[in-house]
Amino acid sequence: MPDLGKKAPALSGTTGDGNTLKLADLKGQWVVLYFYPKDSTPGCTTEAQDFRDLYPRFKQRHAEIVGVSRDSAKSHANFAAKQALPFPLVSDPDEIWCRAFDVIHEKVLYGKRHLGVVRSSFLIAPDGKLAAEWRGVKVAGHAQAVLDAIPAQ
User: Fold this and answer.
1) From CA 66, how far away is CA 124, in angstroms rounded?
2) Mapped to the 3 state alphabet, what secondary structure does 124-150 carry?
3) In this predicted model, what pLDDT tens digit does every residue of 59-77 receive, in sequence order?
4) Residue 107 pLDDT greater than 80, yes or no
5) How far apart are the first and last CA of the chain?
6) How is residue 29 annotated by DSSP?
7) How far apart are CA 27 and CA 150, in angstroms?
8) Beta-carbon-side half-sphere exposure of residue 61 (alpha carbons within 13 Å)
9) pTM for this model (two decimals)
10) CB-based contacts of 12: which residues, under 8 Å, 6+ apart?
11) Is the pLDDT of residue 99 over 90?
């Protein structure tokens, strides 16, 4: 897990459209990297829609949004198409991205313990360094809070 002010890890992964996304290729712009538990679930859908709706304002601030979950690229493709998402979703079934950002933790659902993705977001500055992080995110108002953390151009 990179500390604030340290370089983000050099990661690459497959997106819903089948392309490879390398985090290093996004250097030179702000990057919002958000981790979410599962495609097409209520909270994850709302979060994706919030980022989608604010996407033009993120682009005005020279920021790219990248969603990451353990779902398959096919699941991401379906989710992105259904929700008209203009940003890439990285498939992380091996949890390489999730573990690099330390978002896999024990969770309790209906009294059962399991390892799952803790909803988290990270803001990477144009120089590739981690500028901000949000962990244990509550969806309401989160996309706006991330946008507000990026300096206006």
Assistant:
1) 11
2) ECCCCEEEEEEECCCCCCHHHHHHHCC
3) 999 999 999 999 999 999 9
4) no
5) 29
6) S
7) 15
8) 20
9) 0.92
10) 20, 21, 22, 23
11) yes
Q: What angle do CA 28, 32, 38 make, to 5 degrees?
A: 145
Read off the pLDDT of residues 20-36 as tens digits, 9 standing for 90 and up.
999 999 999 999 999 99
Sequence-distant (≥ 6) Cβ neighbours of residue 136 within 8 angstroms? 118, 119, 120
57 to each of 8, 36, 93, 101, 153, how far by Cα in Å?
24, 21, 30, 26, 11
Annotated catalytic residue within 23, 26, 33, 44: 44
Is 44 among the residues known to form the active site?
Answer: yes
Domains and CATH numbers, the chain: 28-148 (3.40.30.10)
